[in-house]
Task: structure prediction
Amino acid sequence: MSNFPFLSVLTVAPLVGALVVAFLPRHRPELAKQVAFAWSLLVLVLSVVMWVSFNAGGDRFQFRESYSWIPNWGVSFTFAADGIALVMLMLIAVLVPLVILASWHDAESSKRSVPVYFALLLVLECTMIGVFAAADVFLFYVFFEVMLVPMYFLIGSYGGHQRQYAAVKFFLYSLVGGLFMLAAVIGLWVVGGKTFDWQALSQVDISTGTERWLFLGFFLAFAIKAPFFPFHTWLPDAGGAAPAGAAALLVGVLDKVGTFGILRYCLPLFPEASKWFAPWALALGVIGIVYAALLAVGQNDLKRLVSYTSIAHFGFIGVGIFAFTTQAGTGAVLYMLNHGLATGLLFLVVGMLIARRGSALISDFGGAGKLVPVLAGVLFFAGLASLALPGTAPFISEFLVLIGTFTVNKPVAVIATLGIILAAAYVLWMVQRTTQGTLNPALTEVDGMRKDLNLREKFVVAPLIALIVLLGFYPKPVTDVINPAVQATMDDIGRTDPAPSVGGTVQEAAK
Amino acid sequence: MTELKLPSLDYAALAPILIMLGTALLGVLVEAFVPRRSRHVVQLTLALLAVLAALTMVVFNADDRIITAGQALAVDGPTLFLQGAILVLAAMALLLIGDRSVERGGAFVAQAAVTAESADDRRQAEGRNGLTEVYPLVTFAIGGMLIFVAANDLLTMFIALEVFSLPLYLLCALARRRRLLSQEAAMKYFLLGAYASAFFLFGVALIYGFTAGMPGRTAGVDFATINAAVTESPASPVLLFAGMALLSIGLLFKAAAAPFHVWTPDVYQGAPTPVTGFMAACTKVAAFGALLRVFHVAFVDASWDFTPVLGAIAVLTMLVGAVLAVTQTDIKRLLAYSSIANAGYLLVGVLAPSRDGLSGTMFYLVAYGFSVLAAFAVVTLVRDADGEATHLSRWAGLGRRSPFFAGLFTFILLAFAGIPLTSGFTSKFAIFGPALEEGQAWLVIAGVLTSMVLAFPYLRVVVMMWLSEPGESTPTVTVPGGLTSAALMIGVLATLVLGVAPAPLLDLAAGAAEFVR
Result:
């Protein structure tokens, strides 16, 4: 089964589904939803089969396929997945069906074509899979840019308040980053001897000055995408305006392209420059953790609040990547997965709450738990997962990042730990102001608030809760896959973990 | 008295030019002898057949690498490639020019001499058939462009410049509606064009002076002589630099590069939209074809001297085009500034003096021509009772009214913005790659930065069409007849195919990318 062209099939399948859904008659929205959901389940099944056939102890890159595309420029359709990409692909495959299920009625309120909404979701899935599966820099760039188009229309056509502004801001920010990356991609192509193959390029020696410029080009694109402070201002707008399902994908998966890109492209292709820029990247990460958390505390809009929490979490991921230890790196990758699950859940639950109340403002809620106890419970759980409570999956990743960083850079680890305290503040405050306390009398007059989670919504949240708990207690299946890939990345930049030095610390303590 | 030696003529190699000019003359006779009601069909068929025949001859000549007609014309890879490009794009433009389904009587005025805005003028706007003289004019212009890209000495180049410019000045004045705007455009284009021609001619004279006095050679303005003179001539290099500068002004004017671009928005806006498309696609190919030949063949050894200056012009052009495009509120003016910015990108390609640079520039010209013609084809369709509705505010909510055409236009705009899987992206790559290789990193960075700025106006149109609610005054899209539909679909498909599978055309361009000297 390992000879099956998983990655290309996985990339193309959602696109075919999107075409089918887009051409379904507009007056039969139910059919479109069912087809889209079935199609995304098909992708999920295929991904699970791929996960099973991945050999964790085998080659770094597996499922490699290559077809010629533009021979004049040495461009080919090359797909290959390492452990990091595999985990992200799995996350996409899990999230998309849940998002489709959660968005069942989202498109109806917008007066626009319902089938098109679901077709756009599937197109987005195609580009997301492509971007993680590509092993050709040109191909990666193509998916990286094309990904903007479906997201732009999802936000712009189906979003809420200020959707136009948010969509344009999202598009322009990402395009700016993308164009800097284009310059760097062309530069890499020129110094790399006119090839785009990742493996060939990772062997190329680049002069120090050029390497730093190229690193900057790539890093800027990824830092905007992720987003890291100070390139983050588009995310709260986009996340706040996007429909909840699209927002879950935006923050849960799309933004991971940034951190994934740093791991896959910046570090292995420009190892020296990565080390040179690492202190700056660490600084951005730490500032992001504290700054975004402080802003999150002050938000009154639920979706914007969740967006800011994500920026803080991306700070953690950035710190984990640029600490250059296997533990921190594994933690960062695990964080990418767990954050996708936890924040995805949080976004979806918040979306359900907003759909009921018809408002995203925290001040419009209050004591909602008395009306919709199950929903409030799930919100509480999602909040706890996102503040990394022990027992939930994000705790493990956050802890790994912190201890991995502590061994090499104590001040950063200490400041980052502050982020955990702030996380508790913004999550608990948010939960308290929306679902706890005295019941806001205005809530009882809203019809929607009398209905607790229905069966469909329970099906949406149950798998995510199960995964968060499962991975919180038993992350081994995932870490087994991630570890070799992270190890290989650390080898690429020539960093070895510091040997455990208990003796040293004891001596210091004795003084 | 010495006997006059006749130069040998390779008639097969010259056939495309002869066919176009001959058809133009025939078209004049058709105006005189064919009855008025059948002229339109006869002229359009004739012009299209001529383009087809010329194209066939270009393909037939594909392996020619010769200089013929004395030293006057070079029929080599770039010539044939660019002639082919001009002919294909001209065929598309002719389809737009010949369309009479979108507007009754076509896009052209019935009687150009009627006083603008008078009662007669209003009457003629209401559906009397347009002039058919446009076809011979267009055919002449095409013929001139074919000579322009093949010209191997500066005098031939000058004559070709006039042959294709004069019909264009006239064509600009022939819009059916908004006659004053159209006439103003033509006047502006003519006056500035005349200045540019004068500069060009003066430049030729200075270069001629510069080539004098080389041992064992006579003075001349053919490119081989100029090339030799650049390294050997005892004359002062001031003559060379002044000549080169004046010459460039003439060429850059046609290419719409800043600071010689000021005519572009007014002319693009005032001219009948099919003619605008024709100018944006074919004139650009011709102008850059000539620029490539002049700088890659004649002045190649002076590249150290002109590269910084042309580079600065390229950066200025990109900046002016991108920044001013942001402020536009008229779709035709927006496309005009975008065309200026694209001239800047093309100049980056001209400044990459390698085979890859040459083939990349040629690829860009073809890709851009297809997209821009398709864009103007859509512009002709969005109309109300007063003709085309070009103000951007009128395009609000167009996506709701006519999702198909708005979708096509969105695709073209994404191509202009350089999103992958469109020809806009592959062509940018085809130019920036070689430029970086030739050490012109600053031009590439300027190109990337201006692309970001330029993305904003395109995106604004997309937002207008899709994310705004249709207003009272949102016009509908006229469902086009066969001719415009064909042109539009060819343009859009080419934009897609050149973005997804550019390899065949890249191969063709790479195979053609060598000048005979």
User: Anything to note?
Assistant: The radius of gyration of chain A is 22 Å. Confidence is low (pLDDT under 50) at residues 503-511 of chain A. The first strand of chain A starts at residue 62 and ends at 70. The beta strands of chain A are 62-70, 75-81.
